[in-house]
Design goal:
The structure holds 2 protein chains of 2 kinds. Chain A is an alpha+beta fold. Chain A is 57% helix and 18% strand. Chain B starts with a helix and ends in a 6-residue tail after the last helix.
Chain lengths: 377, 331
Amino acid sequence: MRDALERQRHILDFTIASLLRRKGKNGSLLAVYTLIIFILASVLFFTHALKREATEVLRETPEIIVQRTMTGRYQPIPLAYADRIRDIRGVITVQPRLWGYYYDGNFLANYTLVVPREDPPEPGKIDIGSGISRIREAYPGDIIGFTGHDGKPRNFSIRKILSDESQLISADLILISEADYRDFSGISADQATDLVLRVRNPKEYTTIAEKITRLLPDSRPIVRTEILRTYDAVFSWRSGLVIVIFSAAALAFVIFAWDKATGLSAEERREIGILKAVGWETSDVLQMKFWEGSAISLTAFLLGMILAYAHVFFASSFLFAPVLKGWSTLYPQFRLVPYVNFGHVAAIFFLTVVPYTVTTIVPSWRAATIDPDAVMR
Amino acid sequence: MILHPSILALFVSSLLICLMVLYSTVYGIQILRRWDIASGSESQLALERKTYLISTIVSYFLGFQLVSLFLFIFTADSICHLFVGAMCAVGTLTVNPFGYPTLLLKVVTFLLAGFWLILNHADSLGYDYPLIRTKYLLLVVMAPFILAETVIQGIYFLGLRPDIITSCCGSLFSPASRGIATEIVNAPPLPMLALFYASSGGTLLCGAWFLARGRGGGLFALLNAVQLVVALTAIISVISLYIYQMPSHHCPFCILQQEYHFVGYPVYIALFGAAICGFGAGWLSRYQGIASLAEDLPGLCRALTVVSMACTAILVAIASGYVLLTGFTLR
């Protein structure tokens, strides 16, 4: 056992020395290989981290949201609907929500207006998110003006700035009192934006949703798991799409690796010839080639993964964030929570190392079966 | 089809593995037909060279095959929430009728691949290619399975449509529905546990005897094959109950999840490792009469036996840990 290990160690030593002797050729291969793994790993890490973020955010959302639609378009929902839904067995609470968006033409940004259920600001006051505070340079005690639905300006004084912790949700948020919101948006007193339901038993979600559509045909219930599933499918689909587009680049890499592997220089051929002349067997040369492939693959793999990790989790993946997450003026600055799992590592491995091995295996064997006399003659 | 990165990875890699294995099988058939070690003809020399290529290709790709089984289960587990009603890999696999056949084929090729790698290693110990015919015969047997796996996995992935209502493991593995899975589940738990311990004990004893005397290899191989089936049944029907600490949850995939500390991975690796090494060791003991292997083969057999016994011991230890140390009881 010890002898076998020693043997492999010597072959590995020799291989690495021989790789280092041809720095240019192997260096360029390594660079391209690393780049490929870097791009792939960045896409995977980034979409997965976004998915986790979305799941975290959605964990707190209500089980069922009920909206009203009129010929497929969204409408405010009458508060009377809430009482009818409350009668459905299994529904614990029904709460109307008031919220909407406000476009600030001066700063080209969209804000989200919400009437909070707990601790709402008193009329005339608002709480704002850190993103709004940043771009409007507004701080507690300042007066801030918005144009209401009727074109008349309304002034609010800032009660406080929302904490930074949940940037993804709160950066563009404005918390406002119910009276102010109704006055500002023009929504009548017997209507709400939508209704949120609490349901005790997760198995009843779909049944309750069905009952609501039967009871109130113009309503549209949205179950939380549906939102989660859609987010997940969208992010997986986006990263899959990027990978498919990216496969052209991967193909180029495979051709590149094939070319490098088949184009044995005269010097390399002589080296293998001499090795065989001094007593190396074909299997030893193949082992050398195995270590060569492993050394290159492993280095590229680790390097690519580490770079991708740094790119996504420390540098907020500045390279393709716009493609994968969309854009907004007020986009929150947030650090993603680092997370890598077995599935990612294995997926990257199967998408890069396996094709690389396929392309290099036959050329390696060709090299290993060279007759010593043929090259040294 | 769902454009999920892991699915793409499995799809691409299984296609490549299948291509390479088929390529090798073509040469494998040539070797089976025309191999003659005594001849010094041009074609024999070419074949001798080719056999290096084939062994290299097959050992690489069978190595990949071993990892892909776990990636497959992991992927099935991680995309389950895309399907209404699915709560773990069981739900994903029942989305269309090709899920379970894919898994079954993957397990079969996993076991065959492990056994082939052992044969290949033993063959490389002798200078005159002593096991070359057996090895390539096994490759020819294995190739259709790998081809079938690639095709069926492809159909399975292409047929995956999110939102299809599938069953959750709770209903598939509940005693109400019938089928092979429920037969396994309905095996009486305590006698099954006794059978598991008896089979493990028997395998370990036989292994010890094989180590000490160098005889009984065939029996050891047989016992390991039996142990694989018994242990798998026991995991589903009773050991999982102790792991989940619930009297009705029998799912063989949930134990791979984080909530159960990924205990499924050591369990399945030990289970398959014991089966492959044990069966390999027992099978190889048939070749002790071959002159060129006389020196190295006994050492290899012993090493494989020790690994197999260690894996069985680990499996028994994990199972016993859950049975004895958790507060859950079936009485």
